[in-house]
Design goal:
heterotrimer; A alpha/beta; B alpha+beta; C mainly alpha; A: Rossmann fold; Dimethylsulfoxide Reductase, domain 2; seven-stranded mixed β-sheet; 25 helices; 25% helix; C: mainly alpha
Chain lengths: 904, 179, 317
């Protein structure tokens, strides 16, 4: 610890950081623009000027930039100094010279860092009477609005987009006061983290296009802390609601999980919540007609069901409470996971590995700290994007190491990048096709699932000291590199997952991790494709298979089946599902949206979306997190558990029951905050203290204002009344601090910059008990040579489109592709298929052909989307060109780096 | 003794005389409604939404009036025209709550919302005191005749490209290397 | 029937006139107050707003006659009747003109004092029976105020009685043939004026009602015509006190012959009524303790001295 003096007051600070960061950690107000807690300093904006003194006798001092000055021991600075203040004011005055006069029509207004800093620095009048520099805007795709005139050239956007997120289609152009931040030509910003520009940009250059369509100021949004349901990472989000509809999602800081950034699926994949396709009322289907159900009829239905044997099919996108309530209703023996058989087996294996002492599942933050990474068969950019961003940061640890060797502070971002050049930490990717992380990977091996698993087993064997056989020359060369890198790494990391349905890859991954573990468990991140896969798998045993459930339904031995938030046509072969749903007398489906399954149901119940219910989810590292209800639904929807428990229970008691009765969920109850924890038992308001329009919002319907809706179940209130979150960050919906209206106010809630939230809750790990070390798995052998004409099939996932609910959002749909089948140029030539052709798979489902360079010969990669049921396809398929017409989208949304040149 | 009398008795008498003299002073009362009082232009009465000199809606749905309103009686929703111009999809004032404080007018950055000298707003049914945009929007400029927000603001709308707002230079050519 | 003392016609005329005058005072007071406050006052109903009284009467008669369930019903109902009754009774002994009056009483002055004492019961009963804290406070104040000021009122009159040598009001008027008693009994007049205001709890001595502190004091719970009776009772009291001042100190009906005696009486009384309204317009209400201190420590000694001096002068003559 170092001691510094700020305006005469002595503070203890961390000398490894810069003065700006430490001042913010201390809670002092110091304006800044270009510095970002996650991206270090570049000293571009000159806004954080402070005066530094040599010693106590120095009265003159010199002006320095706080973000570029280390917080070294004995530093004496003044923020309040008149000259420093004057400099900051003049700097902002010049930054604002060309700022357009358009705050009222700017989506950033009211949560604008530039507005805050202008006020803080004291500038208020534009004295410059010459003309303002203007720019043309660009169309940047369905997510982001561009308004270049508002730019203050802090360079944060390109530093995030290019340097941090690895994008390559946003750049700083032109020079001097003409500097322009945009694409080389109009078009969609391709990076899957482009949405973060909205939050990274300190002013309104990049704004949320979806939010803008139904724009609401920050203070008018009703918010609550929530958890993203896009994938198994469990990023923390803050959804905002107004006039009964969801308006936007922004990142919510969680030091262990997502930090400051979320992916575009999470940020923009919420629109289905307001969608017209939502199921609105409980419906009974009689013959071809459907009619509404009264409360008595619903009671009767569940009473009738209770008399016989009922199969319950849970869902990986449903909350723990709903799955638990279903299991309780139908009994453990009749409760099955709504997960494909092969994936279920892998998930259960992953659960076992979680309990193994040899492994530790790292949080996202820990992943960022890894110094050698091997990814086996999981396209994390598309299945768990936030983890991919973390892996991308991990390769920069090499640069940090170099910087430390050369005595350069790590936060000196430009200097560190200059020093490191192309030096990166080792990242190895085994994949079925090119992936978005290839640009930072040391080696990428392309192969079928079996080939990847075989190579991974070989790596494990080599790490144990063996000499694996049966590898090609190129593989052996890569093997040496991999083993070398992993052996020398201090914090190696193995990443794999269950989305590809290949248990061997996970086994092989665990073998590598096991070989790397010594006294300490080694880090292994195994991800799932859906938000609560882990929570569902904890509730079922390995022998409870979906196929068994479907068979039991088909045999007619059961009186009914209850399907919870699941489209079975994405989980099992079409024929099996058809048969099962046909044979069962009663098919009750609870879901948010209509799907192929609901169309086969006899009873359909509407279920609340994630923002309309309080619920818990378990992420890939068994971290259980509580997601609060943000707003009330305008339909008759109820949470799944409420339908299944006959409405008797409330959320607190169902969480308590789940915590008490379900194995592994012991610490779930601890997630729920109690009113007694808070100051004088006051509730936490969901609305900001500036929430407007209360007496006019619904005055068109009735001028007599109803009482504010009450929330009897949670510690939050549907009003402005209660204890503002700024006093207690444990339930932090929207951040706000005096004179900090933008999201930069987060530093006021952190213990220190980038640290944990004050009194904050990062979630609870459910699986903390470790058993004895298991034994390595036996390697598999690849059968040599497939039969002619057939291509080995593996699946491709798309960040936009693979997740069922977000794929229903209009803005996400604009970025989606149709189902496609990607194959190598050699195979394409052999089968006489060219890029963009319609191709029938096994003579059945039609997909677009997509010819990619980095696909191994004799295999194909299929992206199913919502059009094809992947379980109808066997491990090897034959492709034939057809003349069938394709649905409109084609491959326009596909962003991969290895599309064959000639096929463009 | 004298001062006691002066302070008690005499002062009462003086007061009585002073008040009595008012009998011969003309009353201030204006006999509304027979006599219409003169309403000052800045009187804070019925709220209107005005149009800019080009006849377009001035309101850009920035929500500042709503947040300034101490009784929260203004609610609106932003909408956007094809050309990028912001406007309120709905704009509602609940006059049964309005206290005519004029904060909304103070807050309005485009001079759209204005208070007028009209105060005769009584209704028999309270629901009739909820006014929508159709009721509020007038066809003129109100008190401010010249101001047109979009001529000043950098936002591009139809008929006003980038660089054509007040005090703006032509958009730069990003490809040019000239200073 | 001739207009003579005690005839049925006279009684009817007096009763009617007094009540109508009291009712009209509602309008007179509001208009006078507004003139003194640079306003116009009620001028909408009828010519000059004269029918305002009718409108008020219709309103007050058609209002709900509400007896609170927690009130003591009997005393709550009779309380407003008492004040009307006793003040109307007091008018019985007032000589309006040589031939106009109801009875000739040798104890006219005492009768009026007795009636005034009874009036206190009305206020006390009204306040107590309401079972309301403001009403209780109001009636406590009223009791103390009326009992106290009755003392000086009585003593201040004794000078007049001594000078005229009679308790008969008609005799007192006739005794002022040469000089109005206001001249020899100026101090007595001032004390009587003040005590009269206090007795009828008119402003500035409306401490038992004092809206700003205790709602409406003893009649907080009253509505409809019961409240109306208190209201009219107050105006009747105002007329009574003005008449008494005229009779006792300003020579009653006497005046130059170009006007009939009863008109002189009315003019003199009217001046005092207007004066009482002017008091309301001009002078703020004292505190309760100030009122009591002023009465007992200043008015009582002053009235006693006045009586002693008067007695001494008479004896020396």
């Amino acid at each position: 610890m170092a001691k510094i003096v700020v305006d005469g007051n002595e503070f203890e600070v961390n000398p490894k950081n810069n003065l700006l960061q430490e001042c913010l950690s201390l809670g002092l107000d110091l304006p800044y623009f270009c510095w970002h807690p996650c991206m270090g300093s570049v000293g571009a904006c000159r806004q954080c000027a402070v005066k530094q003194y040599r010693d106590e006798n120095d009265e003159k001092g010199t002006i320095v930039m706080a973000c570029m000055t280390p917080a070294s021991d004995g530093a004496r600075i003044s923020i309040a100094d008149e000259q420093a203040h004057d400099m900051r004011e003049r700097v902002i005055e010049s930054l604002m010279i060309s700022h357009p006069h358009d705050c009222p029509v700017c989506e950033e207004g009211g949560e604008c860092h530039l507005q805050d800093m202008t006020l803080m620095s004291g500038h208020n009048y534009r004295r410059y009477d010459k003309k303002k520099v203007t720019h043309h805007n660009q169309y940047l795709g369905p997510f982001i609005n561009h308004e270049m005139n508002r730019c203050i050239t802090c360079y944060r956007c390109v530093r995030f987009y290019d340097d941090y997120a690895g994008g390559n289609d946003l750049s700083a152009q032109a020079s001097h006061h003409h500097t322009y931040f945009g694409r080389h030509e109009e078009g969609t910003l391709e990076n899957e983290f482009s949405g973060n520009l909205v939050e990274v940009c300190p002013t309104g250059v990049f704004t949320d296009k979806v939010f803008s369509q139904a724009y609401t100021r920050k203070w008018d949004l009703q918010t609550a802390p929530s958890v993203c349901t896009g994938c198994s990472t469990g990023c923390n989000i803050t959804p905002g609601e107004r006039y009964g509809s969801l308006r936007r999602i922004v990142n919510r800081y969680n030091s262990e999980v997502n930090g400051y950034f979320i992916c575009d699926r999470g940020r923009f994949g919420w629109e289905y919540v307001n969608g017209e396709e939502r199921i609105k009322t409980p419906v009974q289907v009689v013959g071809d007609e459907s009619k509404g159900m009264s409360d008595e009829e619903i009671d009767e239905l569940f009473n009738d069901l209770a008399k016989g044997v009922v199969i319950g099919i849970g869902s990986p996108r449903s909350s723990n409470e709903s799955n638990y309530a279903l299991r309780k209703l139908v009994g453990e023996a009749n409760f099955y996971p709504g997960i494909a058989n092969n994936e279920h087996a892998i998930n259960q294996l992953i659960l076992e590995l979680h309990k193994d002492k040899a492994f530790h599942t790292p949080s996202v933050r820990e992943i960022e700290r890894a110094d050698a990474v091997i990814i086996i068969g999981e396209d994390i950019t598309n299945t768990a994007p936030r983890i991919a961003l973390a892996v991308r940061q991990s390769v920069r640890n090499k640069a940090s190491e170099l910087a430390e060797l050369n005595n350069i502070p790590v936060w000196q971002d430009a200097a560190v990048r200059e020093l490191a050049q192309q030096e990166r930490g080792p990242l190895f990717i085994l994949s079925n096709a090119a992936s978005r992380l290839d640009d930072v990977a040391q080696q990428t091996l392309i192969g079928t699932c079996a080939e990847q698993a075989q190579f991974a087993f070989a790596v494990a064997e080599a790490l144990e000291g063996g000499t694996p056989a049966g590898l090609t020359e190129q593989q052996e060369k890569v093997l040496l590199e991999v083993v070398e890198a992993l052996r020398h790494a201090k914090r190696p990391l193995v990443v794999s997952g269950s989305s590809n349905g290949s248990i061997e890859m996970v086994q092989a991954a665990s073998n590598i991790a096991r070989a790397l573990s010594g006294d300490q468990p080694s880090h292994m991140a195994l991800v799932f494709p859906e938000v609560n896969t882990m929570g569902l798998e904890l509730l079922v045993g390995p022998e409870q298979k979906l196929s068994t459930a479907l068979e039991r339904c088909s045999s007619g031995e059961v009186s009914g089946v209850i399907v919870l938030e699941n489209d079975l046509y994405r989980r099992a072969p079409t024929a099996a599902v058809d048969n099962a749903l046909l044979q069962a007398d009663t098919v009750v489906v609870l879901d948010q949206m209509h799907s192929a399954t609901t169309s086969k149901a006899t009873h359909v119940f509407p279920v609340t979306a994630f923002s309309e219910q309080e619920s818990t989810y378990v992420n890939y590292e068994s971290r259980a997190q509580l997601s609060f209800q943000v707003h009330q639904t305008v339909t008759d929807a109820k949470p799944g558990w409420k339908w299944l428990t006959n409405g008797d229970s409330d959320i607190n008691s169902i969480i308590k029951d789940c915590s008490d009765e379900a194995e592994g969920f012991g610490s779930l109850d601890g997630l729920v905050p109690r009113l007694s924890q808070f100051v004088v038992g006051l509730k936490i308001p969901r609305q900001s203290h500036r929430y407007s329009g209360r007496t006019a919002m619904i005055a068109n319907r009735n001028v007599h204002e109803p009482k504010q809706p009450e929330d009897n179940e949670s510690v939050m209130a549907f009003s402005m009344e209660g204890m503002p979150a700024m006093k207690d960050a444990s339930i932090l919906g929207s951040t706000w601090a005096p004179s900090w209206n933008s999201n930069q106010s987060i530093s006021k809630f952190q213990e220190e910059v980038n640290g944990e939230l004050k009194q904050g809750h990062t979630g609870t790990l459910l699986l903390t008990e470790k058993t004895e070390t298991g034994i390595p798995f036996q390697p598999i052998q690849v059968e040599g040579g497939g039969d002619s004409g057939q291509l080995t099939l593996s699946l491709a996932f798309q960040i936009f489109g693979s997740e069922e609910l977000s794929a229903r959002s209009p803005s996400i749909q604009k970025r989606m592709t149709d189902a496609y089948v990607a194959l190598a140029p050699v195979d394409a030539a052999r089968l006489e298929i060219s890029h963009g052709d319609a191709v029938a798979i096994n003579g059945g489902p039609v997909a677009v052909a997509c010819i990619r360079e980095k696909i191994s010969e004799g295999s194909c990669v299929v992206h199913c989307g919502a059009q094809i049921n992947p379980h109808d396809l066997a491990g090897a398929v034959s492709l034939t060109k057809t003349s069938e017409s394709l649905p409109g989208k084609g491959l326009s949304g596909l962003i991969v780096s290895d599309l064959c040149e000639e096929s463009y | 003794m004298y001062s006691l009398i002066k302070d008690t008795l005499l002062s009462q008498v003086v007061t009585l005389w002073g008040v009595f003299k008012k009998l011969f002073v003309k009353a201030d009362t204006v006999e509304y409604p027979d006599q219409q009082p003169y309403m000052f232009p800045r009187w804070r009465g019925r709220i209107i939404l005005s149009r800019d000199p080009d006849g377009e809606e001035r309101c850009v749905a920035c929500n500042l009036c709503a947040v300034a309103c101490p009784v929260d009686c203004i609610a609106l929703q932003k909408g956007e025209m094809e050309d990028g111009r912001w406007y309120p999809e709905f704009f509602r004032i609940n006059f049964s709550r309005c206290i005519m404080c004029g904060f909304c007018e103070e807050a309005c950055p485009t001079n759209a919302i204005q208070l007028t000298p009209d105060f005769e707003m009584a209704e028999y049914v309270r629901q009739d005191m909820v006014w929508e945009k159709e009721d509020l929007l007038i066809s003129g400029c109100g008190k401010y005749h010249d101001y047109n927000f979009y001529r000043v603001a950098g936002k591009q709308i139809s008929g006003k490209d980038k660089g054509e707002a007040l005090n703006e230079a032509k958009p730069v050519n990003v490809r040019s290397l000239m200073p | 029937m001739a207009l003579e003392v005690g005839s049925g016609l006279t009684i009817g005329l007096i009763l009617g006139t007094v009540i109508v005058v009291a009712a009209m005072l509602i309008w007179v007071e509001r208009r006078l107050l507004s003139f003194w406050q640079e306003r116009l006052g009620p001028n909408r109903v009828g010519p000059f707003g004269l029918l305002q009284v009718v409108a008020d009467m219709i309103k007050i008669f058609t209002k709900e006659d509400w007896v609170p369930p927690f009130a003591d019903r009997v005393s709550f109902i009779i309380a407003p009747a008492i004040i009307m009754t006793v003040i109307l009774l007091s008018f019985a002994v007032i000589p309006f003109a040589p031939n106009i009056g109801i009875i000739e009483s040798n104890i006219g002055v005492l009768f009026i004092l007795a009636m005034a004492s009874l009036g206190a019961y009305s206020v006390m009963l009204g306040g107590l029976s309401s079972d309301n804290k403001y009403a209780l406070l109001g009636s406590l104040r009223a009791a103390a105020q009326m009992v106290s000021y009755e003392v000086f009122m009585g003593i201040s009159l004794l000078g007049v009685v001594a000078l005229s040598g009679s308790f008969n009001l008609r005799t007192i008027v006739e005794a002022q043939e040469g000089m109005w008693f206001v001249v020899p009994q100026f101090v007595g007049f001032v004390i009587f004026l003040i005590a009269g205001v206090a007795e009828s709890h008119r402003l500035p001595f409306d401490i038992p009602e004092a809206e700003q502190e205790i709602c409406a004091g003893y009649h907080t719970e009253y509505s409809g015509m019961k409240f109306g009776m208190f209201f009219v009772g107050e105006y009747l009291g105002l007329v009574l006190v003005s008449s008494l001042i005229t009779v006792l100190f300003f020579g009653g009906w006497m005046g130059p012959g170009f006007l009939p005696p009863v008109v002189w009486f009315a003019v003199k009384s009217g001046v005092f009524i207007a004066f009482f309204i002017l008091l309301r317009a001009a002078i703020p209400r004292p505190r309760y303790d100030q009122l009591m201190t002023y009465g007992w420590l200043f008015l009582l000694p002053l009235s006693l001295i006045n009586l002693l001096v008067t007695g001494a002068v008479i004896l020396s003559n």
